[in-house]
Design brief:
This protein is an alpha+beta fold. It folds into 2 domains: 157 residues, Butyryl-CoA Dehydrogenase, subunit A, domain 3 (Up-down Bundle); 135 residues, Nuclear Transport Factor 2, Chain: A. A hairpin with a 5-residue loop joins strand 4 and strand 5. Helix 1 runs antiparallel to helix 2, helix 6 runs antiparallel to helix 7 and helix 7 crosses helix 8. It is globular. Interacts transiently with the RNA polymerase catalytic core formed by RpoA, RpoB, RpoC and RpoZ (2 alpha, 1 beta, 1 beta' and 1 omega subunit) to form the RNA polymerase holoenzyme that can initiate transcription. Keywords: Sigma factor, Transcription, Transcription regulation.
Length: 307
C-alpha cells in the first residue's frame, strides 16, 4: 500500500480526532491536510501509520487550539462549534462514545479543558487509544497522561447532565417538534419544551441573533410561532437533519442557500436547548451561504398583521 493509500484510509479517523479537539470543520480539515504534508515529507515509513498520523494530527490540533482559544475569548456573543452534518469515522465498537462526543453539549464541555487535557480525553476516552499511544501523541509521560485524564474526566462529569435521552426517543420527539413548528401548532410546541428551555444563537456579530437568547416556554413558543410564517412565505425551507449527532435542522432560503442550523438538546422527554448557528464563517463547508440579514429583512416585510 502506498503512503497516499494509507493516508486516505486513515483520513476519516484523523478528521474525527481533529474535529473533537478543535470543534471546527475548517480547522480540522486544515490540520488533516498539514498532517499529510508532514507524512509525505517524512524520510522513513513509520512502523504504524495509524499511530504516527494520529500523533501528528493531535499535535497540530493542540497548537491550533491554543491560538483559537484566544480568539474565542474575544468572540461576539455565544460561541458554538461549527456544525458537523456527518462524522466520517465509524467504529461499531465505540459507536456510543463517538456519537456522544460530537454533540454540541459535549463539545462545549470540552471547551472547559486545557488543550492537553482535551487531546488526552479525546484519544483515550473517545477513540480508545492506549496510554502509551496517547503519551507519544501529546509528548508527555504515561503518568502525566493518566493525571490529565483524571482531571479531564472530572471536568466533563461535573458538567454532564445525568439522564440522556436514547436515540429513538430523541428522534421521535424531534419529529413531533418540527411537525408542530411547520404547522404553527402552539400547543404542540408548548408540550414539547421544558419550562426552562433556552433558544440561543451564535452569530459572531455577523448575522442576526435573538439578543442574549430567548428563555422559558412561553417566550420560546412565541418566538418560534412568530418566526416561521414569514420565513415560509418568502420561500424559506426548514430541512430536518441530524447535526452533530443530534436532532436538528438546516434552514435554507428560496435558492437553497444555508441560512443557519439548529440542534436540539433533549432530556427527560422535553427539549431543553435549541442552539442555532448563524455565523456565516461556520456554515461555508455546508454549501453556499445566504445573507441572513437580507433574509430577515425580507421576512419582516412579508409579515402580515395577524402574524
Amino acid at each position: 500500500m502506498t503512503r497516499a493509500e494509507e493516508f486516505e484510509e486513515l483520513r476519516p479517523l484523523l478528521f474525527s480526532i481533529a474535529y473533537r479537539i478543535l470543534s471546527s470543520v475548517s480547522e480540522a480539515e486544515d490540520a488533516v491536510q498539514e498532517t499529510w504534508l508532514r507524512y509525505e515529507a517524512s524520510p522513513a515509513r513509520p512502523a504504524s501509520a495509524k499511530a504516527f498520523l494520529s500523533a501528528v494530527v493531535t499535535r497540530i490540533s493542540i497548537d491550533v487550539l491554543r491560538s483559537a482559544r484566544v480568539r474565542r475569548e474575544e468572540y461576539v456573543g455565544p460561541w458554538f462549534p461549527e456544525p458537523l452534518l456527518t462524522d466520517p469515522y465509524q467504529d461499531p465498537a465505540r459507536s456510543a462514545e463517538l456519537a456522544d462526543s460530537v454533540s454540541m453539549a459535549a463539545l462545549l464541555l470540552l471547551e472547559r479543558l486545557s488543550p492537553l487535557e482535551r487531546a488526552v480525553f479525546v484519544l483515550r476516552e473517545v477513540f480508545g487509544f492506549g496510554f502509551p499511544e496517547v503519551a507519544s501523541a501529546v509528548d508527555r509521560s504515561e503518568a502525566a497522561c493518566r493525571q490529565l485524564m483524571v482531571r479531564a474526566r472530572r471536568h466533563m462529569e461535573a458538567g454532564r447532565r445525568r439522564f440522556e435521552a436514547d436515540r429513538s426517543e430523541r428522534e421521535e420527539l424531534a419529529e413531533r417538534f418540527f411537525a408542530a413548528f411547520r404547522e404553527g401548532n402552539v400547543d404542540g410546541l408548548r408540550e414539547l419544551l421544558a419550562a426552562d428551555v433556552q433558544l440561543v444563537s451564535d452569530s459572531g456579530g455577523k448575522a442576526p441573533q435573538w439578543g442574549r437568547g430567548v428563555f422559558g416556554t412561553e417566550n420560546v413558543v412565541r418566538a418560534l410561532a412568530t418566526f416561521l410564517p414569514p420565513f415560509a412565505r418568502i420561500g424559506g425551507v426548514v430541512e430536518p437533519h441530524e447535526v452533530n449527532g443530534q436532532p436538528g435542522a438546516i434552514f435554507r432560503d428560496r435558492d437553497g442557500k444555508v441560512v443557519n442550523t439548529w440542534t436540539l438538546d433533549v432530556l427527560d422527554g422535553q427539549i431543553q436547548t435549541i442552539r442555532t448557528v448563524l455565523n456565516p464563517d461556520k456554515l461555508g463547508h455546508m454549501g453556499p451561504v445566504a445573507d441572513a440579514w437580507a433574509v430577515v429583512r425580507e421576512a419582516n416585510r412579508a409579515r402580515r398583521p395577524t402574524d
